[in-house]
Amino acid sequence: MPLASKFVVMGVSGCGKSSVGAAVAARLGISYIDGDDLHPPENIAKMSRGEPLTDSDRAPWLVRVGQRLAEIDGPVFIGCSALKRAYRDIIRDEAGEPVCFLHLDGSRKTLSERMANRTGHFMPVSLLESQLATLEPPGPAETAITADIDQPFDQLVDALVANIREGRS
Questions:
Q1: Which of 19, 87, 133, 165 has its CA 20 to 30 A from that of 54?
Q2: Rg from Cα positions in the chain
Q3: Which domains does the chain carry?
């Protein structure tokens, strides 16, 4: 039995939501949407200045992420930090159907190294601490798969694909 047909690839900045999400989606023949593209311009500007988003900043974005899931008929993956349970609740409510969260978890060292080495992204390394402080990992009552990003990329993708195909959370 599948966990869901709507998937949110979640985690703090630098965990690989876009690259892992796109690879898992491609392997399964499903579309991937980068949730960063759904942020209001004000949010991008704020984060670019090194200012963390507030719950009220995030609310319209989270609603849009959930609505985008609902708009697509059939399976879809979307990248979204979804850091708090309340944020994931908004997404689930807007999606109108079960959502499985793929939580990409990693060490502070790995995350900061990845953020420092990427180019062309609006999120500065200085915001990692605020994201880690905000993060509430998915709990047992949520449909979620947690994967450790401190492993080779292909191994991470293989593990996520296997868990999804086997309906394991």
A1: 19
A2: 15
A3: 6-166 (3.40.50.300)
pTM above 0.85, yes or no: yes
Tell me what the mean pLDDT of segment 76-95 comes to: 96
- pLDDT of residue 76 exceeding 80, the answer is yes
Rounded Cα distance between 153 and 34, Å, is 19
The Cα 60–Cα 57 span in angstroms is: 7
- Which residue, 24, 16, 25, is CA-closest to 121? 16
Give Cβ neighbours of residue 109 (< 8 Å, ≥ 6 apart).
none
pLDDT of residue 100: 96
Statement: residue 121 has pLDDT above 90: no
Sequence-ordered alpha helix ranges (H) in the chain: 17-28, 41-48, 55-71, 85-95, 108-117, 128-134, 153-166
**Which residue from 98, 96, 67, 61 is spatially nearest to 82, judged by alpha carbons?**
61
Distances in whole angstroms, Cα of residue 165 to Cα of each of 20, 64, 76, 91, 129: 16, 27, 14, 23, 34
- Torsion from C-alpha of 131, 28, 4, 144, nearest 10 degrees: -30
Q: Which amino acid is at 62?
A: L
How many Å apart are CA 46 and CA 49, to the nearest integer?
5
